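ERR on first pass: missing label on line 2. Operator R.T. fixed the label and resubmitted. Corrected input:
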Amino acid sequence: MRLDKWLANMGLGSRKEVKKLLKTGMVNVDGEVKKDGKVQVDPSQHTVTVNGMEVEFKKHIYLMMNKPPGVISATEDVQEETVVDLLEAEDVIFEPFPVGRLDKDTEGLLILTNDGQLSHQLLSPKKHIPKTYYAKIAGTVTEDDVEAFRKGVILDDGYETKPAELTILHAGEQSEIELIITEGKFHQVKRMFRAVGKQVTYLKRIKMGDLALDEALELGEYRELTDGEVAVLQSSAPTF
Ligand code: URA
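pass 2 clean. output:
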């Protein structure tokens, strides 16, 4: 990887700022001053220092995206725009992938990472990681639906869902609800409502485990998780 790109990724500034930094002669690779950002480095093999301080090699990247409708939760596709297409090149080089899927028309919290272990933990059916959705439903959602979801409903393929917590935010011609499910079957929320004769008209994931979507992120925007947020995710899916 190019030295300037890597330094920018490690948070040492924009590509422009990194260029200036390199010019100062403060950047060393394996003890040698490097002023040319085009130099190739393998950060897992080389020791890079700035002003005598070692720059720590970042192996994993953790991103939170507010997924917009119209893009698919995949890394690449020949026809469709993917969530990875929305990332900056400096993040794509870490080869992040989405943790689980949101439907093309679903919005909201999507984690992208290259940490296969964390992804596996979060998706493991054994872990029962709660996922919270906000949805708009055509028709009136009732206490009977709340009770049916609490007990489990039978989906179109005969599968009986695990208990889910349905909260009615507004009941009317167009109802608004929050739903917490602990599994991730294909189109699960939409199919659960279909099982009680209703249709989801808008769906947004707002929480995964204990990590909530940063509402400051506009649709299609994303940011790195803070160390604290990564810890929150990890504790949502402990390895023990
Ligand atoms: N359930 C759905 O039906 N769709 C999603 O995208 C996520 C959960």
